[in-house]
Amino acid sequence: MPTEARTTDRVARYLYLARHGEASADETALTEKGRRQAVLLGERLRSTPLSAIHHGPLPRAEQTARLIGEQCADVPLRSSELAGDYLPYLPQTQELPEDAAGSLLGFLAGFTEAEREHGPALARQALAAFTGPVEGDRPRHELVVTHNFLVGWLVRAALDAPEWRWMGLNHGNAALTVIRYAPGRPSSVLVHNDMRHLPADLRWTGFPPEIQV
User: Fold this and answer.
1) Which of 33, 61, 195, 198 pairs as cysteine with 20 (C-beta 3.0–4.6 A)?
2) Residues 10, 134: contact at Cβ < 8 Å?
3) pLDDT digits over 112-138, tens only?
4) How many CB atoms lie within 10 A of CB 61?
């Protein structure tokens, strides 16, 4: 197997992505299931050498990050608007598959003009902040506790998929995705939507029934 390319000042980043735990109907707090999901994800990550837990500012993300952090000693929590819940990219009709364009554009039409204008700029900043190799002499491991849209956006970018393809990449509550960014290598999605740390009754929340497997 070939030796990996290595520079003297840039090393691999391992980006761990988690959607918040299950939230109440008004999205102001986690449900009991959501709290259990967050604790179990924290227990799974306990031995991971995380340097930081970034989280969006909304209560469901903040509470999830705090519960994960309680299982991971001395890992700082960092609130970031870039880890928030926003529309990362708004496609034009001609970018979309003909048979799916109507439904996708109909979904996007339900968002306000402010949401449609604000999100893409944050998404570009999130790519700059959370992805790519990092400076240093040892690999960096970071967790971002966020929302479905941003997980899809970052996975799409890691795979060099079209920008609109964040749509349709769904992520369960407290499921785990891991992306590796190494110098001189394409980014690699190591794990996606992994729920092995959750018992059966806590899996697949956050998905409509027709796409649960």
Assistant:
1) 61
2) yes
3) 999 999 999 999 999 999 999 999 999
4) 27
